[in-house]
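REQUEST FORM: STRUCTURE PREDICTION
Request ID: SP-0412
Submitted by: Lab K.M.
Chain count: 1
Length (residues): 412
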Amino acid sequence: MATTMQRPSLRTRSVFSLCWHSSVWGGLAIIVAAAATISGSEVVEPQALIALVVLSIITELRPVVVPGKDSNGIVASYAFVFAIMYVYGLPAAVLTLALATLLSELYERRTAWKVLFNIGQHSLCLGVTWIVMVISRHTPSLQDPTVTFNADDVLWMPTTWAVFFLVNHLLIVGVSADTSMTFKEALREDLSYYILTLFAVLSLAPIIALVAVTVWPMLFLFLVPLWAVNKAASISQERDYASRHDMLTELPNRTMMRDELTEAIDIASRTGARVGVLLMDLNLFKEVNDTYGHAMGDRLLAMVAGRIKAQVRPGDLAARLGGDEFAVLLPGVEDHISAVRVAQRIRESISRPFTMDEVTVTIDVSIGIALYPDDGTQIDPLIQAADSAMYLAKRTGTRIEVVGIDRGDERG
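STATUS: Completed
RESULT:
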């Protein structure tokens, strides 16, 4: 599950704070204990361990990203880390996953609190999972690694996957629950997807472990199917991006805007927040297109898109609906006045001259504004309200119109 939200306070009592501190400090204790246990130990069959560590890092750095799901991707490194735990024990697995996670987090340039949480959370999850192996009396180590597996191992191995998933999911949900959704809602979100993907990955661990203890050089053959899956996922992701974006301006298109508006309204209905919708139509664009040609018109649209993106707030969504129509989605906007301020910045930016190949053109924009839930509680009525306000602004020349507010009250 992605954890891309803004960080709530770590000092206040909350589910977020509890899960973060439990993960970080509990995980740190396990990492320190693992390092102390391994220090000075001789490794039996070190070649297989080195191969597993290398593969863990490679697959952690290159997750399989599935369109429309977790932006962090499906992490295949879990399979190799669990294989390490099955063959060499907990300390080697903990330190390997901590190192792989650290390198991945630094590569992604994530903030410090997320880096600490992810490293600690992984270590804590492995520590709890190890309890299952202790109960099953399967406790390998660097000095006494597992060299054979038998049919009885089929009984306890899936239990380790279930325990790891449960602890992992609860901790991630805990740091998500104090943001846009409740703990119960976060717990249920895409639950079947996370169960399916994690169990699919971890089901490879016994096979990887078996290869490691028999003919370890063949471990690197696992990279071939993983590369193929990653390549297929990349192609699918590119197609998904193309279906949800306007290729000329690289802005989200109408489909993505409606999807994001649906999600924003769903969140706002639970939190009591507002959602603003700005619909825009360029004035004088047709004249520029007819005078200078479609190529110049396309360049102008791309430049307009850049100016709109530069004026919206962090977390807002700018989209091109088609032709010379654009939209901006304002999740969490305070009121109509705040939405008008954004519209004014956009209009002032677009009204400045555009220079292309020594040709300078000037256009303007008409903007209609509607807010959820004030002006509509469903997507289509809300968009229709903003659309009506936009055409009123275009027809009357006011340039900015707000549903439910008399013209001139909030505009400059």
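NOTES: Residues 1-5, 406-412 have pLDDT under 50 and may be disordered.
Reviewed by: T.R.
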